[in-house]
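Consider this one:
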Amino acid sequence: MSTYEILQHYWWAIISLLGGLLVFLFFVQGGNTMIFSLGKTEEQRRLIVNSTGNKWEFTFTTLVTFGGAAFASFPLFYSTSFGGAYWAWMIILFSFVLQAVSYEFQNKIGNLLGTKTYRIFLTINGVIGPLFVGVAVASFFTGSQFIVNKTNFIESQMPVISQWTNPLHGLELVEVLNNLLLGVAVLFLSRILGMLYFVNNIKDIDLEKHIRKNLPIETVIFLIFFLSFFIRILRTIGFTVMPSGEIAMESYKYFHNMIAMPVVSIIFIIGVIGVLFGILGTIYNKSFNKGIWYSGIGTVLTVFGLLLLAGYNNTPYYPSTTDLQSSLTLQNSCSSFFTLKVMSWVSVLIPIVLVYIFYVWRKMNAKQIDSEELKQNKEELY
């Protein structure tokens, strides 16, 4: 494998890791979907909003970083997906704008919409964000409707390399069963992570009892949708890159990827075990409140492994169902060797940033929030 190929695989791993971190941080969105169902009193609803309000910037920043990394390392993927399936991405981004506005203005004196309306906006973001991102990730396995013609780049009249062939521009992705299965699975996973975070971050006995009572139901729903997606993907006909460079279909492609890449499979399995350990520990041990860390790290590893299965082992990570040969691979959609090399030096700073985030997180979560804190810091909190 040449140095250029190593860099291509390296940057797909970075993007996959960012994807895993993003799904983990969706505990903010998942928690917000339960403002009204978990929060039986105004005090509990304020506790929930302030608990997630301390972390929502991490989610938004990671989403932007994911998009930036994709643009810099795989620009053809960025232009094809973000430029073609723009309605799906615009809905996601608009929901995050709603989130930012809602945290900022819900308790401002004189706001015309009222606190409840802004909390409904937070709930909308909590549903749309995880659902559509899950659908988008699933399309790495199921494919999308686009064509790529690099010769168009030299056309002065219309220098557009990739074109989306469906007029719905991304909304059609929700019509694919496998996409919808993963989308719903990510939604319920975010709700589970949200509940685990509340157990760790909020000090309220009644709220905690309600969470532990509902956690098994949410877990069963998540497992049904996630396992349905994963089993169907392993059994489906997938996309592969032939030695000649031609894109073809291959039966049980993603099952073959798991066999051919045991390290990736182990990462994925460890991730699933971590997710279940955090959930089951919280359900069966009433004094256990660290589930968010086990399930959170497990989520990162699971999504990381899943995305590696979609892009490694001669697999088009963004297949086209309209024209197989337009499918995007690590080789035909990446930046230049120079760009990837320079970016790789910059990526050395990533561990430093992660350590800083961990430090700030620990400082912010040093003490559980409770009703007394809401009373003492009424003007500073959401």
User: Anything to note?
Assistant: The chain has a mean pLDDT of 89. The CA atoms of residues 78 and 244 lie 26 Å apart. The radius of gyration is 21 Å.
